[in-house]
Amino acid sequence: NDPSIPPPDKQTIDALKKYFGHAHFRPMQWKIVRSILKERRDNCCIMATGYGKSLCYQFPSVYTGGTTVVISPLISLMEDQVLGLHVANIPACFLGSAQKDKADVMRNLMRGVYRVVYITPEYAAGGAGESVLKDLDKKIGITLIAIDEAHCVSQWGHDFRSSYRTLGKIRDMLPDVPIMAVTATATPEVKSDICQSLGLRNPQITMTSFDRQNLFLEVLGKSNIQHDLKSLMKETSRRFYYEFDGPTIVYCPTRKETENVGQALKGMGVKCEIYHAGLSNEKRKEVHHRFIRDELQCIVATVAFGMGIDKHDVRRIIHYGAPKDIESYYQEIGRAGRDGMNSSCHVFYSPKDFITNRYFLNDITSERFRQHKAQMISKMEKYLATTKCRRRMILSHFDKNCKSSVSGTSQCCDNCVEKLRAASRAGLSTHVLTTAQMNQDTLVDYSKEAQLMLNAVKMTEERFGLGVPVMLLIGSTNQKLPNNCYKMKIYGNGRHRSEKWWKAFARVLKQEDMLAESKAGGYGNSKFSYMLTVLSTKGRNWLNKSLMSDGKAVEFK
Ligand code: ADP
């Protein structure tokens, strides 16, 4: 709690209990609510999912008997919120072209009946909406204008919507009404863009920690849908029947893939449905409601299943295929564990997934924006390939000075778990490991494996992708392995690890700039080009040094 801010008085707490059923404000909530009630100040609130954003903009008008206008991008989300407010005996409505009983609603609105009014950004910035807002302010005075999902204002964010861009004119239209921009995800760039484009005046900026401590993060290689997903499920008493251990969302990059995954899961006996923008509104609503009522265990969806998911006990978010970028990913996994209970987030990916993601970059005409998007994609690639703490990597994307108390523990991510295991194998008690020790990458020494991998690439004359060098290491008898490989000294020397492990390890070596890719083929009339795995200069130098030292481990950093 901020000692410079006086605590709420009894009357305020009574209203909080009466209308919202909470005994206390969360510290940031009170700071924001107070600044509206006492100072009519503009606010930019960046709050992790589940912190309680809606209370911040709903409370002021409920308390004073005024009207708050909330601009929100999704009609279904607004309908849910209006329903929730009605249940709490707070008069609220949705205003827009799709709304019924228009005349009645309008009359009540101008008489100040509603405490909270929801509108879409299109309506707010359109001619009809403009005159309604002006009229409303003249007649009863608007307490506050809240702009939900405010990151949609910014081109530098992950979910830019052009209708949000025009919301800047609200400030000119209603100069004396405080504006509150709210979002769960904003980098420092996006935050400045929000404040600037909405014309916020000396806004109070509030940022909760981005750290969702109840989410465990994991990244896995993608092979076969059934096989991959089975690893996250348990077998039920019926033979061949599987289930997730809680409500689950599986995100896929395309509609086609949702169908493939949906079919595979149904084949395993999982109660699931698919969800994407190609389905009718009714169908989508039905699927959403069945999921909320736990009639479905799992939804297999594209990112169209996003904002407005009103389910607090989602236990798993699985991305089957690489997510688009870190910000979207953070937003998507934010839908897990909103009730605060432990939940987990898994990505199954193959490096090939990025080919499609990169392909769409060609459609962007602005060079600066294209570069920005390309950077966002590479950051995601780095996240997937990293051997360091994944939580810290995501958090530092939003806040350079981030701290997480779960980093380095078994509740954090797969890499931290791996480090704990390695430390325990090395005889260190996991209990005495401090965060500082966890961050020493020397705890896991993979130099022997790095030497084997680089040597396999060298011995096969850098003429192949990853398949052949890896087959050589694991001592494969696959026909694709050239005959001369069987006689090589390193044939089978990497048998102690799986094919999947070696491929994942090679990707790490690429990230560390020890291995590189070189394009081959595509000559003459041939359309087909492919990627060879080759040694980088750094990798070549390191390998020579490590071979000279007679196989003894050499640090490659
Ligand atoms: P967000 O929009 O930030 O994701 P919500 O507004 O949906 O979060 O709130 C998340 C949950 O936190 C809801 O169940 C809400 O009832 C609860 N909540 C909000 N404020 C408080 C509070 N002051 N005390 C206890 N619970 C709260």
Automatic annotation (TrEMBL):
GO biological process terms, semicolon-separated: DNA replication; double-strand break repair via homologous recombination; telomere maintenance
Q: Tell me the superkingdom of the source.
A: Eukaryota
Q: Which residues form the Helicase C-terminal domain?
A: 228-384
Q: Which UniProt keywords apply?
A: ATP-binding, Coiled coil, DNA-binding, Helicase, Hydrolase, Isomerase, Nucleotide-binding
Q: What Enzyme Commission number(s) does the record list for this chain? A: 5.6.2.4
Provide the reaction this enzyme catalyses: Couples ATP hydrolysis with the unwinding of duplex DNA by translocating in the 3'-5' direction
Protein's UniProt keywords contain Chloroplast: no
The Swiss-Prot or TrEMBL record lists the needed cofactor(s) as: Zn(2+)
Q: Name one GO molecular function term.
A: four-way junction helicase activity
- For the Helicase ATP-binding domain, which residue ranges apply? 34-204
Listed under GO cellular component are: chromosome; cytoplasm; nucleoplasm
The family annotation for this protein states: Belongs to the helicase family. RecQ subfamily.
Which protein is depicted?
DNA 3'-5' helicase
Organism of origin is Branchiostoma lanceolatum
Gene name tied to this protein = WRN
